[in-house]
Amino acid sequence: MPASASRRPSPAAGASLSIGQVLDQLREEFPELSHSKLHYLEAEGLIDPERTPSGYRKYSRTDVDRLLFVLRAQRDRFWPLRVIKEHLLEHGIEPEVTSIASRPGPSSQLQAVRLDRRGLLQEARVEEEFLAELEQYGMLEEGSLFFGAAELEIVRAARSLADEGLHPRHLVMVRTSADRQAHMIRSVAQPRSRPSDAAARGQAESIAEDLGEAMNTLHSALLRRRIHRP
């Protein structure tokens, strides 16, 4: 669990939060969390906030704890929603439970960060010229004012490769491959999304995340096999 999670204040036992307050409270750990994702998890029966007489959702402390379990199980253990739902029905919220679905992966190492350009240089331990080269070859977007965990991971990985002689100009095919994979994933997920249906948009987001993790696993397995092949 990210250290920031332990510092995040929880609502009092009798308090309730609006959907916007829930997103604000969890944004540090889950910056990509959206209204549509919460609506989708609700439609799938994973969370069940109360409704006011006027129809607004209200989340209790128990609801937020359950939501955190669902999101962390997806991120850290790569559990599909079906497995998470079955676990909740059988065991409730048990953060220390183990499962054959648990396995380490790149996403489990990421923590939410927000860095300006100087902060990114310091955290990644690179020079401005190296960052500019990554932008030149499309590894980072030019003109960005702030950077998150993904950008930090990209710069650190690129620095490690550069230390062994593989510089950003050599990695264009890696970026191109990622672009093609992202396009393939969007082509599968986006047809499930409808602008007027928040649950459908959340389902599309969840499908895209699951496909991305599966693609990462496949790529890693194929790469390991190729590297170790005589």
Q: What is the average of the pLDDT values?
A: 82
The radius of gyration computed from the alpha-carbon positions, rounded to a whole number of angstroms, is 20 Å
Largest sheet: 2 strands, antiparallel
Tally of individual helices: 10
What level of helicity do the residues show?
Answer: 55-70%
List low-pLDDT spans: 1-10, 97-110
Distance between the termini: 39 Å
Number of structural units classed as domains = 2
Number of strands: 2
Tell me about this structure.
The structure is a single chain. The protein has a two-stranded antiparallel ribbon. The chain contains ten helices and two strands; from the N terminus they run αααββααααααα. The protein starts with a helix and ends with a helix. The radius of gyration is 20 Å and the shape is globular. Helices cover 57% and strands 2% of the residues. It folds into two domains: 6-103, Multidrug-efflux Transporter Regulator, Chain: A, Domain 2; 117-228, no CATH class. It is mostly helical. α3 (35-43) crosses α10 (198-228) and α9 packs antiparallel against α10. A hairpin with a 5-residue loop joins β1 (50-51) and β2.
